[in-house]
Design a protein that fits this description.
The protein has 317 residues and is mainly α. It is 76% helix and 0% strand. It has helices spanning 2-31, 37-42, 48-57, 64-74, 90-125, 130-143, 147-161, 181-210, 213-220, 225-263, 268-277, 281-309, 313-316. The chain starts with a helix and ends with a helix. 29% of the residues are buried.
Amino acid sequence: MTGLRSFVARRLLLGVAQTVAVVLLVFALTEALPGDAAVALAGDQPDPARIAAIRKAMDLDRPAYERLADWATGLPHGDFGVSLASGRPVTQYIGDGFGPTLLLAALTLALLVPVGFGLGVLAARHEGRLVDRLVSSVTLAVYAVPEFALGVLLVTVLALKLAWLPPTALGYGTDLLAHPAALVLPVLVLLARPVCSLSRLVRAGMVDALASPYAAHARRYGVSGARVRYLHALPNASAPAVQQLARTVDWLLCGVIVVEALFVIPGLGTVLLNAVAERDVPVVQGLAVVFGTLTVVLNLGADLVAHRLTPRTAVAA
């Protein structure tokens, strides 16, 4: 118990340090963006007096360290600042885009677990045979295709050529559950690579577990093959797969930006891309902090899950 508490305390301290580093890095990177946000907001023919007024309203005339202090102080209270383009609070942008992004991630994870574990168990059960080679070859090939290229391919074939599905979610708004057909292609793209990596991990773990002495001992005592696979081998093969599953949630944060842009889904990824195009620095900063903090939290959770399932990893930590 003492070792577990020490491990959790170290990981929590590391997570806090990483979050602080994310905040500082986001502010530094947005400050380093080329151009002047005040000039961009002033229009095509900016007037010097108008530019000066915008800079004053945006506090751009203050030193960077003062703006950093004010911005960082508001973050723990949920104050991410105000949009330069619309004057709306950044939290409203996050709230508007959070629903579609959460829906995509939830659907992907709901399908990922049964499909990933099912393919892995199927391949391990037929180790070395045609089914195993087919599953391994297909998952390796799909994993090598980038999300954007796979999305374009699926849109071309399933939406444009065959007209089975809508090519984008344009016109459906944020209530995507009322239009499930618009979710099929985005979820397929998000699901493709995680399913491949998860199934290969489950297969490798199952093959090792089924070849272990305790599995052979169970068979000698007349335990059925299904019982050996699902009650003995699968739990022992799940530790790396569960850790990969936790990290997949982190990966979805990056993949969802590409998918939302490709399929015109009004989620956090689309909000971020629009803010970058408009040089809406507070929105970019707020979303970058949200993505960065979620990444830190999810990696921390993955470390704790791995330690819980395989306590010997604490030795390496």
